[in-house]
Amino acid sequence: MPESDGDWDGNSLLLTDYYQLAMVQAYVEHGLTDVASFELFVRKLPPGRNFLMAAGLEQAVAFLENARFAADEIAWLRDEGRFSGAAVEALANFRFSGDVDALPEGTVFFAHEPILRVTAPLPQAQLVESRLINLIHLQTVIASKAARLVLAARHRPLIDFGLRRAHGAEAALLAARASYLAGFAGTATALAAKRFGIPAVGTMAHSFIQAHASEREAFANFARSRPRRLVLLLDTYDTEAAARTVVALARDLAGEGIRIDGVRLDSGDLAALSRKVRGILDEGGLDETRIIASGGLDEAGIADLLDGGAPIDSFGVGTSLGTSTDAPALDCAYKLVEYAGLPRRKRSAGKATWPGRKQVFRRYGPEGRIEADRLSTLDSDEEGRPLLVPVVRGGRRVAPLPDLPAIRAHAAAELASLPEALSHRTSGLPLLVEIAPILERLAREADRRVDTM
């Protein structure tokens, strides 16, 4: 009987492309079990993107540590009748025993630079490909989008409102995490707040207002039930009238020790309405009451509002963040770069790769801004800071990974190090990613080996 949709395990090795299982069988049966290195990278930046931000390493490492086939999954593979006994036994005994090197989460990176490298016996390194891409890709997409929003908001707080339009529950949770590490201030997704320690933020829906006999009654009831960090939603009926109701109510609530911390605008001409509401609040003595804007916002909309002087103090961002609407996918790849001690590469037109295990060396200018990245071999002695760091050795973490506050601090420093031209939301001149001559030589050698086969 088929399982229900909710009956899946994120650590299951069956959560993979079927051809990975087929290749593992062939590797095992033909003795291709030597050590291999695969590198995960992005071939090119999406249109309008000047940089990307690495994310998802914590979940990727946890997957490698816990990846298993359950007994019923092994039984399913056996019953399929398309896998040999040797292959099924190898799959049943899978435990990741390899090494991982990666960019720390929150690191800014560019096309062709490895985000993560797996070095392990070939069947192991192959089998984990699909889920690793799945985990790293999603959070990198969202963190990269969130970083652009953070830059557009110019130090104003941003809140993740993306749950309801995210592509599934896991995507919503990991999007909340990725946006927070990139600099968002909180999330409206309660489970993400609990699981990752992200500040939980919430106001009210229009239905709450509509359920009451009057807007004033709705505001008063909500205020007395939720007096701390109180934010009221203004645009259910008439936004300006609601702002005046807030001013009148604030006088009554003040006697009860309740302060209205903010009001939210979710529709209409946010620039014009925010000015009118700001004037009403200030005239009524609520000059410290913040204005929060939401409703279909993206980085361009936020930048336009602030460029126009809209008096908005923070923003809630939903669909454009949770689905990264303008660039929902990256041209992400996980390719074999070394096997049995020999550099390997792919030569397909438009998808050629650089062979060998690699390191990214970053140079900075006098003001601490990124000047150039150089892609070279792992053991080369290049100028600059090496970006990939050891994460796992022999299947075990070399040290605890940074917590979210530390990752947020690193991400903030990374954004501050961007050259001015790359920190804008429109495309600037691409960063020069230099290719070391040794990689070009390795590519020629790898090609010669293939051509003489």
Largest sheet: 7 strands, antiparallel
Oligomer: single chain
What is the number of beta strands? 19
Rg: 26 Å
Average residue-wise pLDDT: 95
* CATH architecture name of the largest domain: Alpha-Beta Barrel
By secondary-structure content and strand pairing, the structural class works out as: alpha/beta
How many domain regions?
A: 2
CATH class label of the largest domain: Alpha Beta
Overall geometric form: elongated
Distance between the termini: 49 Å
Helical region count?
16
For the record, what is the CATH homologous superfamily label of the largest domain? nicotinate phosphoribosyltransferase
Strand order within the widest beta sheet? 13-12-1-5-3-17-18
What does this structure look like?
It is elongated and about 85 Å long. It has helices at 18-29, 57-66, 71-80, 85-92, 122-127, 129-153, 169-181, 190-196, 206-210, 215-225, 239-254, 270-283, 299-307, 319-322, 404-416, 437-451; strands at 35-42, 52-53, 99-102, 108-109, 116-121, 158-160, 186-187, 230-233, 260-265, 290-293, 314-317, 332-339, 342-343, 358-364, 370-377, 385-386, 389-393, 396-397, 433-435. The strands form four sheets. It has a seven-stranded antiparallel sheet with strand order 13-12-1-5-3-17-18. It has a six-stranded parallel sheet with strand order 7-6-11-10-9-8. A four-stranded mixed sheet has the order 16-14-15-19. The chain has two domains: 18-142 and 328-451, nicotinate phosphoribosyltransferase (Alpha-Beta Barrel); 153-322, TIM Barrel (Alpha-Beta Barrel), CATH 3.20.20. A hairpin with a 2-residue loop joins strand 17 (389-393) and strand 18 (396-397). Helix 2 (57-66) packs antiparallel against helix 6 (129-153), helix 7 (169-181) crosses helix 8 and helix 10 crosses helix 11. The chain contains 16 helices and 19 strands. The chain is 39% helix and 18% strand.
